Amino acid sequence: MLLKYLRLKPTIYFFLKESEPTETIMEKLCDNETPLICFSSLRDEMIMTERRILIADRKGFWGKKIRYVSLPYSSITFYTVGTVGGLDLDAEILLNLRGNVKIQLRFLRSREISESIHRAYEIITQYFICSSCPSG
User: Which of 3, 49, 50, 100 is the most buried (most CB within 10 A)?
Assistant: First the structure.
């Protein structure tokens, strides 16, 4: 019963800005993966490639322990994107994954982040929807 309750709440990751990927996260990519966009906070970072979303979630006081979360686009069952507007303080992308797992990516409001959110949306759409479309 407890496990069922925990799955209803999303795991939330916060990011402040679009950034260049660090060597730490680049080392976790496959040879044939290309970074498309990267976001960072004070400690954590997220990179989107043509295959997956990879999050480096730093733990502990010093942040030396890192938990890597890999989210293949193929595991997404649906997603929503809330952009910056009005009095909102942030934007968000909510990913619902197989197994009723929910991941919320939250982005602090800024001029630059609004454009970055649209790029992230286009990447998810391209590799989640368009890559599964039959060609022809």
Answer: 49
Cβ neighbors of 132 (< 8 A, separation 6 or more) are none
| CA pair distance 63, 109, nearest whole angstrom | 25
Question: Could you identify the residue written with the tokens 């942040």?
Answer: 63
Q: How far apart are CA 15 and CA 113, in angstroms?
A: 10
CA distance 126 to 40: 22
Which tens digit of pLDDT belongs to each residue from 24-48? Answer: 999 999 999 999 999 999 889 999 9
Domain CATH code at residue 79: 2.30.29.50
**pLDDT per residue as tens digits for the range 46-102:** 999 999 999 999 887 777 889 999 999 999 999 988 876 665 567 889 999 998 899
Q: Is residue 86 part of a domain?
A: yes
How far, in Å, CA of 102 to CA of 124, rounded?
15
In a domain, 2, yes or no: no
Q: How many domains does the chain have?
A: 1
Q: Are 135 and 84 in contact (CB under 8 A)?
A: no
Question: Residue 77 is part of which domain span?
Answer: 9-132
**CB within 8 Å of 23: residues ≥ 6 apart:** none
